[in-house]
Amino acid sequence: MNYKQIEMPASKRIALIAHDNMKEELLDWTRSHLDRLRPHQLFATGTTGHLLERALGTPIHKLLSGPLGGDQQIGALLTEQKIDMIVFFWDPFEPMPHDPDVKALLRIAAVWNVAVACNRSSADFLISSPLLDQPHGYKVPDYQSYLDQRLN
After folding, report:
1. In the chain, what are the domains?
2. How far, in Å, CA of 91 to CA of 83, rounded?
3. Confidence of residue 100 (pLDDT cuts 50, 70, 90)
């Protein structure tokens, strides 16, 4: 696979996702970092988005609930470079009926070189990075090059 360099904007598009047992933890984390999050566009899957928007009083782009396709919606946005970062507080102790969807989302995030925080500690590192508020160059798969190689 060939890669190309693109630039992430200074104002990030951040996906916020949490399994049921982790929603309060994500809400607490977002409250602690609301000043850092406000300048950015926030996206969230279903119930998490409604909970965050109501509790924080800040707009959230709400997608479907994870088990109903919200994880796939986030994945599709990743492939289009419309999400720059994911904060996904998942519950490692609770099997989820949509575990294959979660695995697919994390795979797509890795393919498209998107930063992912899966717990509070890694989310703290991401939110405190100086890269959060400035443009950032990074590499993504060069799909046009991929097509050219396959079709010629």
Report:
1. 3-151 (3.40.50.1380)
2. 22
3. confident
pTM for the model stands at 0.94
Is residue 124 annotated as part of the catalytic site, yes or no?
no
Q: Where are the alpha helices (DSSP H) in the chain?
A: 23-32, 34-37, 46-56, 70-79, 99-111, 120-127, 143-151
Question: Which of the residues 20, 28, 35, 71 is marked catalytic?
Answer: 71
Amino acid code (one letter) for 71: D
Q: Which of 129 and 97 is assigned the larger pLDDT? A: 129
**Tokens 């507080």 -> residue:** 89
Q: Please name every residue paired with 17 in a beta bridge, in sequence order, or none if there are none.
A: 88
- Helix or strand or coil: residue 95? coil
Q: Evaluate whether 51 touches 23 at the Cβ level (below 8 Å).
A: yes
Mean pLDDT of 121-133: 97
